[in-house]
Amino acid sequence: MSEDDVATMRRLVTELAETTATLRDLGDRADLPAVERNAARLEGVIEQLDRNLPPELDEA
Amino acid sequence: MSEMWNPRLETLPPDRLERLQVRRFRELARHVYDGSPFYREKLDDAGVDPDDIETLADVRRVPVTTKDELRHATGREPFPYGDLLAVDPVEVTEYHQTSGTTGEPVRQADTWPDWEWWSDCWATVLWAQGIRPDDRVFFPFSYNVFVAFWAAHYACERIGAEVVPGGNLSSVQRVRKMVELDVTAFMSTPTYALRLAEVAHEEGLDPAGTSVERIVCAGEPGASVPGTKARIESEWGAEVFDHAGATETGAWGFTCRGSSLGLHFNEGRFLVEVLDDDGEPVDPGERGELVVTPLDRRAQPYLRFALRDEVELAGPEACDCGRTFRLATGGVLGRSDDLTKVNGVLLSPIAIEDAVRSYPDVGDEYQVVIEHHGSKDIDVVRLTAERAEGTEKSARTVLSELTEELKQATNLTVDLELVPYGTLDRPELKARRLTDTRDRHV
To answer: Which residues of B touch A37 (CB under 8 A)?
Structure first.
């Protein structure tokens, strides 16, 4: 696995987190619990993706 | 905050709802045709090309799937699900099986997306019944291969409620844990909700004085049986809701907080048909048998699964909650397999349950045995009930009054026996209270 791959994964996880936060906010504003609550659940999964890609993986 | 999990979907106009259901049915039919040898053969035999399904009339050209078919199909390869499986076995992440109420249990596979589907359907149910992120929900359930409470557990998590798993505890420990943690809701069979109230009393606690505000019932139709629902509500001082589902179909029905005593079909995720003896849809106000298709399941889905449950169809106007989903008036009225003729009279076990549970001077538990007396060539219905704890009525009065109540409810004279309170078994899961010993039905 190259450093570029790791960087790409980190960028995608960040995008997912931002997208999910937006989705959650929109679900809340539209009074759609099915969207807001499911997005909240997704945040838990995305956090695990983030924690599995810590900066310590980078070669010093 | 909305009273509906998905208010856009749950209030969709009927014509758009039908369009959605037919499209998803077509996609599901294509999926099982491609993935399951069982369904490929079934659809080929019926001359149905999945891609040609464009209307509900087209849907009805697909033969129903019966429980007997499942039992045969699961005996074939690949083990242990057989050729009903519509995905690569490596995609399966969840094993469950039916409770075996009507025979040998059927194995059920689900993928992870299926499991997400299960709990999202249950979230629709629980949100409609008032479960919210600030609830603390107790599950007094011995977690095992029976699926319903597992899926509800995960639905509570999906909602964001706090879940307290109460498996592997005695009934006394469960009641104490509920009191210790100030739980606001719990889920159980109606039978076990009554049993837990009984245990609370034995422990010197008043269940109506606990913090429990809502009880969601599954596994038996009792929460839609007025006498049983009233007993649970009275014992716990809580709102009582019903859910209807099956391992094969998922959570297809629910009572809401609207004014009706009916069970909404979860029509955003299921195609629910109520059919007459000729397989044609009944009109509102008529009774028929349920045929359910879970539209979004993938590993081992069923096209038009014949539940053998009887319901009376009502239009959406029967409830004032605002959903466009149709309802079954009074919930599931019984399994068509359980309706039996006694001396020429059709007997419904639910009619017996309502009569017994509506009569306050007997306990919650009872047993019914139907026998045939060969010498007289007649059937006899024997019912054993417990005297209620603390009743001041004489046994003679109770026998006389309850016999009359049962006669009104069933049009039959029931041979009634009263036993002391606490004599009969208290089941935790599905209760079987009727035994038919006849080898022929006259």
So the answer is: 123, 133, 158-160
CA B387 to chain centre: 28
pLDDT by residue (tens digit) across B363-380?
988 999 999 887 777 889
Nearest by CB: A31 against B2, B123, B157: B2
Of B8, B123, B157, the CB nearest to A32: B8
A48 to chain B, closest Cα gap in Å: 17
Q: pTM score, two decimals?
A: 0.89
**Is A42 touching B (CB cutoff 8 A)?**
no
Domains of chain B in sequence order:
1-335 (3.40.50.12780), 340-436 (3.30.300.30)
ipTM: 0.86
At B43-59, the pLDDT tens digits run: 999 999 999 999 999 99
Between the CA of residue A10 and those of A7, B117, B119, B179, what are the distances in Å?
5, 28, 29, 46
DSSP labels, A19-44: HHHHHHHHHHHTT-HHHHHHHHHHHH
Give the nearest partner residue to B160 out of A31, A32, A40, using CB atoms.
A40
